[in-house]
Amino acid sequence: TFDTRAIQELDAAHFLHPFTDHAALRDKGARVIVRGQGVYLWDSEGRQLIDGMSGLWCVNVGYGRTSISQAVYRQMETLPFYNSFFNTTNVPAVHLAAELVALAPPQFSHVFLTGSGSEANDTIVRMVRRYWDILGQPERQVIISRQNAYHGSTMAGASLGGMAGMHAQGGLPIPGIRHIGQPHYAEQGQGMSENAFGLVAAAWLEEEILALGADKVAAFIGEPVQGAGGVIIPPATYWPEVQRICDKYGILLVADEVICGFGRLGTWFGSELMGMRPDLISFAKGVTSGYVPLGGVLVGKRVAHALVEQGGDFHHGFTYSGHPVACAAALENLRILRAERLVEKVALETGPHLKAAFNQLATHPLVGHAESCGMMAGLNLVRVKGATAHACVPFARALHVGMLCRGHMFDNGVIMRAVGDRMIVAPPLVMTRAEIDDMAARIWDCLDLTLADVKA
Ligand code: PLP
Fold it and tell me: Which keywords does the record carry (predicted)?
């Protein structure tokens, strides 16, 4: 039998976890996840969990895909590693680059490969500054991002991100990064229609550009739908207006598609759904469904032309840029997404079903409002329900109702994330309608348990 306690003690003694309160971990012991199949996980005590978070927004094709493990095994036997520096290449990396360009919107021609989403965003910081250097405008240095964004944990990734807690640790942001407000209608759009608020939020970008001077601004970066910030879905007017502003001032538009890419919103890339025409796209996670680490940057022709035709060497790259095993995993993952028509399914079948399930959850007395986009959804826990999101009364933050609710979820077999009092999911794209119903039923029961706690 499995000795969970022994693993928890070793874990607490030696393993420093990301974003974890280690004192609490030591007292309670980490949950030990040992196996996955489809949309379900099992812990070391044999408890089954439905994974509402796709691991960490990444296991798009679900767990237990032997065709991916076989592709990885075959590649390891043939060529486990070679680099792509100094005029060398490898076959899976070349095929993956070509395939990604074929899947991407027509303005893309090239791919730069990395090991993670954070490295992809670091690459973007260096690449956009390099681009303006090559064009003879080296004073165009500033990259504008948004509050509450998450773009990774490296120095540049965490600087681009807009999370105050991250900036407070380690002297961030690095120079040349600015943040504007996020298009969060429920929090900031009081007294306006959603579409009117979308235009107001986009205008914050123009105000920032004018305050800095357009000739100082290199790029604007944003997630099509903000993920870790709480599944913040922008009004339909927001991205087209941001696009117009970027075009007006010649500023590069960057879509961080680390979460939204590879079908999450029912399109191959979230920017297609949102009416963006980005010059660069960062991706990771869903490109391999998390089976092996891989990330990268899709490079549009505008930037690629400067880098390839005019720039000479770009002094940048990672040992694992184009790792053959990761690329083999990605190729098989993309084949599965296509063969099972998972992207279309999200648009036509599973995404609408998840929306209906969350609309139903919104009738719970603890839920203020719910939203969804493709296979991402969120609901807000509130003290008093109101007719609109703006009319609800929130709980005092210090009560940590979201964390309480998340605990009930985990104890009762559903993994859901809490961002303050907003509960969010991003399930595997393979989740069936019956499994969505199973997840929603478990969520409802845990909302009941949480309501009982807050009443007590
Ligand atoms: N960008 C976004 C939008 C993300 O959600 C994440 C990770 O959650 C990252 C970047 C960073 O990716 P990674 O953790 O692979 O470095």
Answer: Aminotransferase, Pyridoxal phosphate, Transferase
Domain finish residue from 284, 314, 339: 339
- Cα of 254 vs centre of ligand 1, distance in Å, is 14
The crossing angle, in degrees rounded to 10, of helices 433-455 and 401-411 is: 130
**Ranges of H-type helices in 58-104:** 66-78, 91-103
pLDDT single digits (tens) 309-324: 999 899 999 999 999 9
- Ligand 1 center to 258 CA (angstroms): 6
Of residues 387 and 159, which shows the higher confidence score?
159
How many CB atoms are located within 10 Å of the residue 444 CB?
15
Q: Are residues 55 and 204 in the same domain?
A: no
Centre of ligand 1 from the C-alpha of residue 262, in Å: 14
Could you tell me the distance, in angstroms and rounded to a whole number, from the CA of residue 156 to the centre of ligand 1? 12
Give the separation between CA 74 and CA 329, rounded to whole angstroms.
10
Question: Which residue do the tokens 């964004």 mark?
Answer: 149
Ligand 1 is surrounded, with C-beta below 6 A, by 116-118, 121, 150-152, 223, 227-228, 256, 258-259, 284, 295
ipTM for this model = 0.99
CB 58 within 8 A of CB 289: yes
Expressed as residue numbers, the domain containing 391 is: 31-61+341-455
Nearest atom of ligand 1 to the alpha carbon of 119: 16
332 and 352 housed in the same domain: no
Measured between alpha carbons, how far is 355 from 299 in angstroms, rounded to an integer? 33
456 pLDDT higher than 90? no
Token code pair at residue 340: 């099972």
Atom of ligand 1 nearest to the CA of 257: 3
Q: What pLDDT score was predicted for residue 1?
A: 78
**Å from CA of 286 to ligand 1 middle:** 11
Ligand 1 centre to CA of 157 (Å) is: 8
Using pLDDT thresholds of 50, 70 and 90, give the confidence band for residue 383: very high
* pLDDT cut 90: percent of the chain above it: 98
CATH number of the domain within which 246 lies: 3.40.640.10
Mutate to test the pocket of ligand 1, among 121, 153, 285 (most ligand atoms within 8 A of CB): 285
Instruction: Please give the Cα distance from 48 to 37 (Å, whole number).
Output: 10
Is residue 9 a part of any domain in this protein? no
Residue ID of nearest Cα to ligand 1 atom 9: 152
Atom in ligand 1 nearest the alpha carbon of residue 285: 15
